[in-house]
Design a protein that fits this description.
Length: 190
């Protein structure tokens, strides 16, 4: 904006405007992610609504396939209903699948599994992307610089996932995928 105001006739105005728009969008996503993290710590979840987890995972997998038609997605999803907070579950899955779109090649293989255990359900989502170099130090730190700016993200995605799962009284683990990228394992109470 300062460059434009100093030289309003510059031939580079379109480039300046594109940069301003890109940075404004990035800042908007960052603020939204920070607000979500703050809200997760403030309000109690509504864990008593019936959530069809299998339908949600089928839908998210289909949306991923629509976005990346060349991607191979292997799904092994058992029918599963849990008593949880549907909005938080939707946000959790949206973060996982948007990270796959943002951080993996469009043809990287993905596996999505949902299994029923006695008192909990287990979700395992793996991708064939580049993965994360050091999961022990970066997975839960806010503003993960290695995966944020170059891909348009805020660097808060893994922190948001962890906080949502903690709020739902579940567990989450990030590890290296057998496909080469990131594997996310989540256990949620039924």
């Amino acid at each position: 904006a300062e460059l434009i105001s100093q030289n309003p006739q510059s031939p580079d105005i379109q480039r300046y405007l594109t940069t301003m728009r890109t940075e404004s969008d990035r800042m908007e996503r960052l603020i939204a992610d920070l607000l979500l993290l703050a809200e997760l710590g403030e309000s109690a979840p509504h864990l008593n609504e019936l959530v069809n987890l299998s339908d949600l995972l089928h839908r998210k997998s289909a949306e991923l396939q629509d976005l990346n038609p060349g991607r191979i997605i292997d799904t092994h999803i058992q029918d599963s209903l849990i008593s949880s907070d549907p909005e938080l579950i939707e946000t959790l899955l949206a973060n996982i699948f948007s990270n796959i779109v943002r951080h993996t090649p469009a043809d990287a293989r993905v596996t999505v599994q949902l299994t029923n255990e006695k008192n909990f359900v287990s979700i395992a989502i793996e991708d064939g992307g580049p993965g994360i170099a050091d999961l022990t130090n970066q997975a839960f730190s806010r503003f993960d610089k290695s995966r944020s700016r170059e891909s348009g993200g805020s660097g808060l995605g893994l922190s948001i996932m962890q906080k949502i799962v903690e709020t739902l009284d579940g567990s989450i683990r990030f590890k290296k995928s057998s496909l080469g990228g990131l594997a996310i394992e989540i256990n949620l109470k039924k």
